């Protein structure tokens, strides 16, 4: 019993207090799997998460767990819940992934981070982490079929970094801090376009 409880600990944050979640018990593994598929199809991911917890608790050795981790990861990513999506992918990678699957899983996590990065002149740490993860990916998986996609993400992220540095450079120039400004001076590639920023966000930038 203790072993099962420890296995479920990483999933506890997914437990939902949503009053629309219905709690079932004592179903077969196949029925839990079918319920999860039905929940995802109806876009009721709170219920799907809850049903997955039950599948884990009642059938910890079920082969459906492996499949449902991927299903839930992609379902959460599809509605922009990338943190939860990455959690499911990490669980799959730790527990089930073969060496051939790792490049795809790591690519998916990079893709999630790229998609969620939608404020090009903020979240500098997220941008730097994305660049670092892309470089690590290309180093560790040079023959991956996803290397071209990662290269594209890296190029876009590095261009965004240049525009961000240029913004910081101009800010320090306005503040008459030439030494600080010098650290961020950068060359913007010709014919490149700055990251798109909706008009309602521009008023919050420098």
TrEMBL record:
The keyword ATP-binding does not apply. Keywords: Signal. Residues 37-176 form the Outer membrane lipoprotein BamD-like domain. It holds the Pfam family YfiO. It comes from the Bacteria. Gene3D superfamilies: Tetratricopeptide repeat domain. This is Outer membrane protein assembly factor BamD. It comes from Lebetimonas natsushimae.
């Amino acid at each position: 019993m203790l072993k099962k409880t420890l296995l479920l600990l990483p999933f506890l944050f997914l437990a939902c207090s949503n009053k629309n979640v219905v709690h079932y018990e004592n179903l077969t593994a196949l029925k839990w799997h079918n319920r999860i598929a039905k929940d995802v199809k109806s876009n009721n991911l709170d219920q799907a998460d809850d049903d997955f917890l039950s599948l884990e608790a009642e059938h910890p050795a079920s082969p459906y767990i492996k499949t449902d981790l991927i299903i839930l990861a992609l379902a959460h990513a599809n509605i922009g819940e990338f943190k939860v999506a990455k959690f499911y992918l990490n669980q799959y990678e730790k527990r089930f992934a073969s060496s051939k699957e790792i490049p795809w899983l790591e690519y998916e996590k990079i893709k999630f981070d790229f998609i969620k990065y939608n404020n090009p002149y903020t979240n500098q740490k997220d941008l730097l982490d994305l660049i670092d993860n892309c470089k690590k990916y290309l180093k560790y998986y040079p023959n991956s079929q996803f290397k071209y996609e990662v290269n594209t993400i890296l190029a876009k992220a590095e261009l965004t970094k240049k525009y961000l540095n240029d913004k910081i450079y101009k800010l320090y120039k306005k503040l008459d801090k030439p030494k600080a400004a010098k650290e961020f001076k950068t060359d913007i590639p010709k014919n490149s376009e700055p990251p798109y920023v909706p008009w309602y966000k521009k008023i919050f930038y420098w």
